[in-house]
Model the fold of this input.
Amino acid sequence: MKNKPYLLLITLLAFVSACACDADKPDGPDPGENFQRYTTDLSIQSQILGRKVNFSITLPKSYVTDKERRYPVVYMLHGYGDDNNSWNGNWLHGNDKIFALENQGLSDMIYVYPQGFTTYYCNFYTGAFNYMDMFIQELIPHIDATYRTIADREHRSVTGYSMGGFGAMALALKHPETFLCSAPLSMSFRTDDQYMAESQSGWDNQWGGIFGGKGQDGEARITPYYMEHCPYYQFVPENRAELEKVHWYFTCGDDEEQLLIANDTLHVQMRDNGIRHEYRVGDGAHTSKYWLGALTEVLPMFDYYMNGGSQWPGLEETHNIPEITLQSSGAFVSERYNAVTEGQLVMVLAHDGLDADKIRSLIGAMFKEYSLKPYAIVPMDVSKGTFKETLAETLSGYSYERLGVMAIGDAGIKVFANRQSFNNLYFVEAKLGTIPATLSEEQTYCFCCTDDSASYRDFGTLYRTCKRGGIPFEYRVINSVNDSGQDIINCIFTLHNTFIY
Done:
């Protein structure tokens, strides 16, 4: 009985110790039978923000079967007005895309969806709500302490859509020591001119309270604090060495209202300044369909770099180019050509001295399938004679209701200078020359280049001219495979759904 107080003390200490251990226990997943890969509305209590911050998480399918394994982490940021559940909400189905890519060979990774409020994932200029500090100093350490992550920058990447695209850029821009890769999708930001033209309520509600200049107009909105976070002022030669620690990828749909102008302008600036990046323009608008489609390349790219890759080659493209029969003139004429009397189309393939084999492969790529082809494709070597005389000779013997042209490489300059001769104009990796401030609304422009193209300025200028003038257009930027012939073929296939037959 004399030992009873000691026994009570030992029991009490054990109970207190157990409570302390439970309090310190990571809030990780239950490794038992009830394990679910996706968990919503977890949270941390932020000391920096003085409030709770929610996050959701998708864990690898091997998380409970391979209990010693650690994983790379991808942070996925939501857009303005959305929340930490939006990546897997009514419109976006991020997990479905992740699981499908895993079935195609994507490595197991952890995906974290943090609550971003309406902060653009930045600290407020007043210091009243330092969201970025919370993200770097509290959220990431919490994830690394709670889950089996590989807790270093070489295994941490970030992506996001719209406002989350700006956040993906800004977080990696301000903290290149933290992220290996950044992939903004439809990044929500503006050129200076666009910001200055924003409505007062639009500026004040979205940007003024974060970056300063609330209640201001014109140049007063372009505050020094904003410039510290704006890619136009940061992606400059003197920052190149630091910026290129991050693997940059950004993409935007060609049907975006304002954002593609801003994103494309940034691409041109980064090319001018020699800053390495991947850039894509696809067919689409500010939609969940576009962002989910972008993950098809973004997540494998993250996987590639976080597993030690050095230079992303892009997704492999394979195209089946059908065999075709050419006339003695080098033209291709479909069996339907003579049978069609209304709406008949002739497409000129404008080139600058290509040989017969290359012409054959390009024409084969142009119609792709026998069920989808122009009625006649007629090659034209623009290096011979004057353009108008050569065009008249090329079209001699053909009748048509509409005339289209596809210009390849250097032929683009002469074609663009004589654009009034055609109804529909297609430019593939082509030089364009001088582009006027206005274009005719009676013509349609479809153009595609690679992100490493020598014609990146020409294509960017043509896009902005079409966009601002309400000219019908389709614009695409695809990955370069560093093979000019294959790049041209890939561009032609990318433009296929824009062909008018």
